[in-house]
Design brief:
Bound molecules: adenosine-5'-diphosphate
Number of helices: 11
Strand order of the largest sheet: 2-5-8-1-9
Protein name: CbbQ/NirQ/NorQ domain protein
Pfam families: AAA_5, CbbQ_C
Organism: Sideroxydans lithotrophicus (strain ES-1)
Number of strands: 9
InterPro entries: ATPase_dyneun-rel_AAA (IPR011704), CbbQ/NirQ/NorQ/GpvN (IPR050764), CbbQ_C (IPR013615), P-loop_NTPase (IPR027417)
Distance between the termini: 58 Å
Helix content: 40-55%
Keywords: ATP-binding, Nucleotide-binding
């Protein structure tokens, strides 16, 4: 049996609010409106949802979507075992049954048929048809659907359809403003604010290269990685090359430009 408690976020996650998103999310949840969180990778979307699940004291079921994911992966399937066939609920079905917040991370990655199954859950019906099982689930009153997506690097082909988009309320996230981001780094990795400020500066230099050789800037997540390595004793220039530059580019010119920015910052 699925245990609601196992999906609860037990410890308060550290989340630095950027604007009034916490109050807005609470209002959306109160009305059980579906929520979409847009923004570049590693800017705090998942952390925000985790924090909200904790604050609202609701179970959270997160599904990282990928291109091989089908509707059955979300909804469930029959399994064959020694005892014969038995049905196994997928994560979306579990969330609808127990009244969890279901967070579909990077939903556009999943195949089109998955977006179709979420539709009846996002309107007044709040139902989930399990076609293969011949069952129609009525979502638990606490159930809420949340999706994230990164509009930046999706090809037009992979964009969400308007008929899906227009079923959601939406938050537009971006990398935090410099002082806020420095605060996040110093809290997450326990580093001093001066060092956090230097890392943020490198992040910003890279973000200016977006569209000029870089598809995405350096994320807050990577800045946290760099901060963590430095905190662990790695020399700052090595830490930055390893956490901030090598992961994001294979282009020698861009790499040299960023390495240079690092050397200047930590000269
Ligand atoms: P994504 O937008 O890809 O879901 P995450 O929420 O996983 O990104 O954020 C990546 C990391 O960045 C987090 O693990 C956390 O360390 C840090 N982070 C980003 N934004 C915030 C924030 N507002 N408050 C606290 N941590 C943050």
């Amino acid at each position: 049996m699925d245990n609601k408690e196992q999906y609860k976020v037990r410890k308060e996650p550290f989340y630095q609010a950027q604007r009034n998103e916490v109050a807005l999310y609470e209002a959306a949840y109160a009305a059980r409106l579906p929520v979409m969180v847009k923004g570049p990778t590693g800017c705090g979307k998942s952390r925000f949802i985790e924090y909200m699940a904790w604050k609202l004291n609701k179970p959270l079921i997160t599904v990282a979507c990928n291109e091989d994911m089908t509707a059955s992966d979300l909804v469930g399937r029959y399994l064959l075992d020694a005892g014969g066939t038995r049905w196994l609920d997928g994560p979306l079905t579990t969330a609808a049954r127990i009244g969890a917040i279901c967070y579909l991370d990077e939903v556009v990655e999943a195949r089109q048929d998955t977006t179709v199954v979420i539709h009846p859950l996002t309107d007044h019906r709040r139902t989930l048809p399990l076609d293969k099982k011949g069952e129609l689930i009525k979502a638990h009153p606490d159930f809420q659907l949340v999706i994230s997506y990164n509009p930046g690097y999706q090809s037009l082909m992979k964009d969400l359809k308007q008929s899906t988009k227009q079923r959601f309320t939406a938050f537009e996230f971006d990398y935090p403003e410099a002082s806020v981001e420095a605060g996040i780094l110093s809290k997450e990795a326990d580093i001093d604010p001066g060092l956090a400020g230097q890392l943020v500066k490198i992040g910003q230099a890279a973000r200016n290269l977006k569209g000029h050789g870089l598809d995405e800037g350096i994320s807050t997540r990577l800045l946290v990685y760099a901060a963590t390595l430095i905190k662990g004793g790695v020399e700052p220039r090595d830490a930055c090359r390893m956490a901030l530059v090598r992961p994001i580019t294979d282009d020698a010119d861009i790499r040299d430009t960023l390495d240079h920015a690092i050397d200047t910052t930590f000269a």
